[in-house]
Design goal:
Length: about 425
């Protein structure tokens, strides 16, 4: 969708037993997608059918209504609420006075506008080419390039074949480039896992993940990070921010690309490397806009997490934007804990404390035998608080300290000095 195309009419098809509420929800979502792409919805044509018309999506009567509405309002674009087949696109273009795109193409356009990094742009281009390949039809013999000269036999390579070959060549190049990026990401991920735990913020687009990450950085690292904007797919390129507990233990909070219902498989495949950051996280925080279809958004998010093989991770569900939500959604029975708040308005210590507990970074008091030259002593000075230290001998001290449960458990496993130092809850 080009920049100057800013007036849009939606073509909605209500199929089978689909409820009116469900259709209203899809219309709201599609309107949001159009706005994210720079369009303004000026009309909606909807039809209830037993099944989608295989030729034209809607019936002939509704198509006439759609064409008349587009002409009267001089609409720039019609957006279908379902992915259209190449044949449907060709048929509709003959019957309608303006261009038509489907939901998938609309999302691809938004992604193309928002991608900032080279990795993001490569992923979007792969998705676009995957979408385009089966739609290179209808160009026929008139674009054939005939073989020239004596001895040639029949038509040469058609323009269609040339286009397909160019796309395959381009996709091969892009996939090699993306594979290189994936290797770099895997190396960085491995380095992070050795050093610090990882928290992934996931959820429906525009749920407030970027704003939450920004507040997390402000509250736990005394730093600033860009705030999210109130628009769909504001974040396409994942960002990792390092934060600290009160004792100084570090962990990473990653903001990920937002989900959407029936996320086109072209995008799921292309953004696999990015989405897999979730799979390798230690804790997942599902961020849900409490005021906009929270149950549907939760179901969408769980489906994507299931596809990624990430449902085995500890999951915290955070219902965001409670300051403007008319109701408090019921707790998520699939999460280890459900919390409520407003990332843009308040500090979220209960969320931070819950995540740090799941990462074993919550505080415990330990009593152990160590000495000033031991690595444990250094660790306590860096990421802990020594409350008392009494010499027992020239090489051994009895120390009481506050540290993370993670470190206490590690020392308990190692038992290098043979002493018992069971953590005591602080």
């Amino acid at each position: 969708m080009q920049k100057e195309e800013n007036t849009v009419i939606l073509a909605m098809c209500q199929v089978g037993q689909e409820t009116d509420d469900r259709v209203a929800y899809r219309e709201q979502e599609l309107t949001g997608l159009c706005e994210a792409a720079g369009g303004t919805v000026i009309g909606v044509v909807s039809q209830k059918r037993a099944q989608v018309d295989g030729r034209t999506l809607l019936g002939s009567g509704k198509l006439d209504e759609l064409a008349n509405l587009a002409e009267q309002n001089e609409a720039d674009l019609i957006v279908a609420d379902r992915e259209l087949t190449p044949a449907q696109v060709r048929n509709l273009e003959r019957l309608l006075p303006c261009r038509i795109v489907d939901r998938t193409q609309l999302i691809l356009d938004i992604f193309a506008r928002r991608a900032q990094t080279r990795e993001g742009r490569v992923q979007v281009e792969i998705a676009q080419l995957n979408y385009l390949m089966p739609r290179l039809t209808g160009r026929g013999v008139e674009l054939s390039r005939l073989g020239g000269g004596i001895g040639t036999r029949g038509p040469g390579e058609t323009q269609l074949e040339m286009d397909r070959r160019r796309i395959r060549t381009r996709m091969t190049h892009l996939r090699k480039e993306l594979a290189s990026v994936e290797r770099q990401r895997a190396t960085m991920r491995g380095r992070r896992r050795r050093d610090v735990p990882v928290v992934a913020l996931v959820g429906y687009t525009n749920a407030g993940k970027t704003t939450l990450q920004s507040m997390w950085v402000r509250d736990k690292a005394n730093a600033t990070a860009p705030m999210g904007q109130n628009r769909l797919f504001d974040t396409l390129d994942p960002t990792a921010r390092q934060v600290r507990t009160k004792l100084g233990n570090e962990y990473v909070v990653i903001d990920t690309v937002g989900f959407v219902e029936d996320l086109p498989h072209h995008l799921v495949d292309a953004f696999k490397a990015t989405l897999e950051e979730t799979k390798y996280a230690d804790v997942i925080v599902v961020v849900v806009d409490a005021g906009h279809e929270p149950i549907a958004h939760l179901e969408t998010t769980r489906k994507v997490l299931d596809d990624l093989g990430a449902l085995s991770k500890p999951i915290v569900t955070f219902f965001n934007k409670m300051d403007v939500s008319p109701i408090q959604p019921a707790p998520d029975v699939h999460a280890v804990e459900t919390l409520y708040g407003a990332a843009a308005k308040e500090s979220l210590e209960p969320l931070y404390e819950t995540v740090e507990r799941l990462l074993s970074l919550d505080e415990v008091r330990v009593t152990l035998h160590t000495h000033p030259n031991d690595f444990i002593w250094d660790r306590l000075l860096k990421n802990g608080r020594i409350e008392s230290a009494d010499p027992v001998s020239s090489e051994e001290w009895l120390v009481t300290a506050v540290t993370s449960r993670r470190d206490a458990h590690l020392w308990q496993q190692q038992r290098q000095d043979g002493s018992a130092h069971e953590p005591q809850n602080h």
